[in-house]
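Re: your question from the hallway

Yes, I did run it. Sequences:
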Amino acid sequence: MKRTQGEIEQSSRGIGRRSLVLGGLFVATGGVLAARMRYLQVERADDFRLLAEENRINIRLLPPARGLIFDRSGVLLAGNEQNYRITVVREDAGDVDAVLAELGRIVNLDLVALERAREEINRRPPFVPVTVADRLSWEELSSVAVNAPALPGVNPEVGLSRVYPMGADFAHVVGYVGPVSDYYLEQTGDTDPVLQIPDFQVGRYNVEARMEQTLRGSAGSRRVEVNAGGRVMRELDRDPAEPGSDVQLTIDAGLQNYVEARLTGESAGAVVMECDTGEVLAMASAPTFDPNLFVRGISTTQWRGLNEDPYRPLANKATQGLYPPGSTYKMIVALAALEAGVITPDETISCGGFVEVGNRRFHCWRRGGHGRMDMVQSLAESCDVYYYELAQRVGIEAISAMAVRLGCGVRHDLPLSGIAEGLAPTMEWKRVNRGADWVVGDTLNASIGQGYVLSSPLHLAVMTARIATGRAIAPTLVRSIDGLPEAATPAPDLGIDPAHLAVVHRGMWAVNNDRRGTAFGSRVMEDAYAFSGKTGTSQVRNITAAEREAGVIRNEDLPWERRDHALYVGYAPVEAPRYAVSVVVEHGGGGSAVAAPIARDILLRAQVGDVPPPELYPVGQRREIEEMHRRLPILPEPPQPTGREARRPGRDGRDRA
Amino acid sequence: MSFLEYNVKSTPTGWRKALHLNWALVLLLTAVASVGFLMLYSVAGGSMSPWAEPQMQRFGLGLVAMFVIAMVPVWFWRNMSGVAFGLSILLLLYVEFFGSVGMGAQRWIDLGFMRLQPSELTKITLVMILAAYYDWLDLDKVSRPLYVAIPVLLILVPTYLTLRQPDLGTALLLLMGGGAVMFIAGVHWAYFAAVIGAGVGAVSAVFASRGTSWQLLQDYQYRRIDTFLDPTSDPLGAGYHITQSQIALGSGGWTGRGFMQGTQSRLNFLPEKHTDFIFTTLAEEFGFVGAASLLVLYILILAFCIVTAVTARDRFSSLLVMGIAVAFFLYFAINMAMVMGLAPVVGVPLPLVSYGGSAMLVLMAAFGLVQSAHVHRPR
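Structure:
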């Protein structure tokens, strides 16, 4: 149907009017766009042209200064130092080879590093600065700056680089930082823009790695305007970098240094904890390595040396090393048996040198046997037969439950790269993991800390602290972050009868202070510094019946890797325990001969606060001890707390020089 | 009832229709598209691949489509508008459930030789259905609430579907384009005033409440809005591109740095240099003269559309042509404002210049409709 002529007229008038309005809007918008174009392209053309000539407006990321790491009294463990370096930007340099050759005439360039830099320059985008020389002296840097006109694209820069003043002593606690690798980016999925900054370093090991987010801080940025020569004319604005948080550890640097020094020459791990708080005062793993090597870029030879050393310097034995705890496990068996009521402390068990269970003989370490033993004596003399009997009475489940209560076979969470869980085996565990039923021989082996039982020095230190206090002490490594103390909750009671603990304490006292104790040789002459403990020697090989017949081969006659592990756990002072220690010397031989003296020295050092004086030692040992203390790489003076500001060159990590 | 029942005998028939095409418009479209070919050749570093050659093929295809559509009487297109609109809604629903998700979450259907984005198609079919609706509607009913509600619904359904993709740019274009057709059709001023007033009110309420106890959004949402409105507040993110885009534009000066002489190598950081940011390259290489010329070409295309709209005496043709003109205008105005730092960055291409198949073909089809209205105008 057709519309009337009137309607058509009315419609087209309406549309015409409104179209005109829109047309006006089109023209007005076009005008605004043209005006903006004119403003940008005509009025400000010169400004923009200038900016366009060089890299124009530059946004530069400012790396944050990494948080510092201190020991419990403020001794600097990880700091930042000024690092003068030279970078080259490919697109500014033009002929890279010519520029590098010219640069080589002014400063000494390491040829290998130079070749690596050349490759990187060609691989990265043309505008990315690549470091060609690092750790230059101020004089070298100045001479490059003076010759700047002859060196296009070459920039002298001042950066911050990580430095570990205590060196090797803290490699296994503080760890180290390293460059951001593609592998790192892939592993962590970290997209922080900071990581794009050339030569930015991230934590790669231990506290540096596990507390990366705390220590890193966040990037700042600055926008700068540059002229045609690439010179920064002015800074438009600046958003300063947020430095990382400072971390204070619970470690005592002086003690740590002593412990690492005392372990020199061994392949060993040791942990010292404060009994009440669980604060780790020292955590050493020997041999160790200099973490500064990794910051500066370790050479292949050095790396191979560390990696192929049979003493495994790169492994943190204190937390990662798992060892059969040997006789140090006996307190657990004793407490489990007492709690189950299957024995009283005074009941005696006769040791004839071995027991027969099934068709197998289980030997005591003393071939002739110990005779009648009560619980205190069994600990003091470390009688194996006594514990074979106890284990049969109480069973593996109760033993392992007690082990877990005392902190063995569980993972203690510390900000370190490798922390082993250990193992307190149960019947169920063997069925699942070994596909075999638990047999009574397994229980007997476990009762003297052999067989499937595995613990790290950290486990043993926690166990010792828990036995010493009767409370569920948990280890901690971080004392405060940016001066704010980490929340500490008082450890709950373990619910072990104090009378049972008292029996075990007497036994552990007798180990060092009873003439028949296994570590009597490692006693302390001053009662105020006396300590309690337990030795352990764990086999790493089977002794065959034939060998036992012929006489067990002495450790000294075995190749190193087949010798027994030497262990010792202890605490001091005897009343009101304050320090708990564990020492494991891999293939060290016997616990009483090797591990106990180390533990004694460490406990004395902790209590005295300095290298222990010879008067505390038995007369016959004093000369030897003095001689040893002279020989060990102990710092002449305990390290002193450092001022915080002195170590912080600036808020921002790097600026153009 | 319709306004389209004028005397058919007076319109050209057969091949003679070709003589009555608006050839000036064809010339203008070809000129704009050629600017596009030139720039695509330049940003590819002086190479026909990967962008310039396919773009030329698509423009050729678009020209053919335009001629075919122009030959068909405009009343046929009016009768088809319901079907076309329904089809594009179905396609939108289809991609909602089965579509492929490409860059920036735009959804498309792979047709083999090109990727069809139903949201692009909808821009035109929405204009068609609205024009047909007002062609049918009696003039005195245009401003009655019920008859206003119907087109509002027709606009909101596809807007919602594109917003879900999520494609904010296209959703905004649909909303504004549809609103513009209602405006031209003569819906009372008060409706637009109310909608704009409500929008301004809501936005100012959101901002006024910031930092007060009755804050309407979360803090992080405000920060996102800040970054959206002022990219320079995020110098490491969106702001970096806008800053560099303005520098490239500005450094063009009066006459530009010359063809292929722009420092695109430095503009490698612009992720969309062949699509949304192509205007930057034009302005850098041909300066104010080049950029303003393109703007003039666009305005001329608009002018031809307005003339066609006003001379077509039936409501369908007028509204269709004006609707298409508005959609075209929104495209280039938003894109240019965006690269010149006058508007926040939303993904809107520069029409006929930016690389892209769907947008090019749909626009050429739309100009086919304009031509059809022009050929079949009463005289």
